[in-house]
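[agent] plan:
  1. take the single chain provided in the ticket
  2. run structure prediction with default settings
  3. attach structure tokens to the ticket
  4. add a short note for the reviewer (M.T.)
[agent] executing step 1
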Amino acid sequence: MFKFYDKVAVKVDGLCNLNWTFYRYADVLLKLTEVNWTLRQLGQSVSDADITKGINEVRRRALLPEYIVGEVDFLSIMSERAYELMLENYMLWDMRRTRKAITNGSEKFNSVENLVGHFPDRTWLPDQSYNHAIDVHELIQPIPKYDIDNNTKTLQNYGYTPKQIGQ
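[agent] step 2 finished; step 3 output follows
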């Protein structure tokens, strides 16, 4: 993987128009599936083909069996995103975006639960260092110290240090 990093823009003047985001086609297809599935859940008229199109195109490329529309739900969409976009830092952003977490089961993802209050299964970690439920402040990122130093009016996001006035 490659991402352009302009040292002068980041460290000196903050001016660069070369840094841009890469979107994987699989990410776009799986978001399309999520949007179409959600629209149907909200009562909109969405065809079965539109719901299964994106997820099945990703699965075809991976030589996996295709879904029928009755098998596509939030858990299957998020599970497919977790498998397809593994090690690309999408899962954390998906959980923050949807406010939902998928839970580990036996060889597959098991269920969906609210992100706030979710206690991640870390039994596979040797040091067991993550030992608390996810809190509201973890829905946002801390503001980097460099940005706070650059603009003295910038306050840190809630729950991170240095603390904001009144926290």
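[agent] step 4 note for reviewer: The mean pLDDT is 83.
[agent] ticket updated
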